[in-house]
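Hi everyone,

Forwarding the result from last night's run.
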Amino acid sequence: MVAWSVELSEFYLTFAPRGAIKSQMLADFVLEMSNLPGKDTTLPWTLSVDGASNIRG
C-alpha cells in the first residue's frame, strides 16, 4: 500500500482503503443467493414437437 501511495502521489491522487463489509450483511447475502437443500423451486419442463421427431432421430 505504501508503494501505491508513493506512485499515486506523483499525480496528486490519494489511496483510500475501503471499509469492512459487515459480517451479517455478507451472511444475509449468501443465504439469499444460495439454494436451500430440499427446496426445489424449478418446475418440470414440457417438450413440444411438431411430429418431425422420432426415436431414430
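The mean pLDDT is 75.

Cheers,
N.
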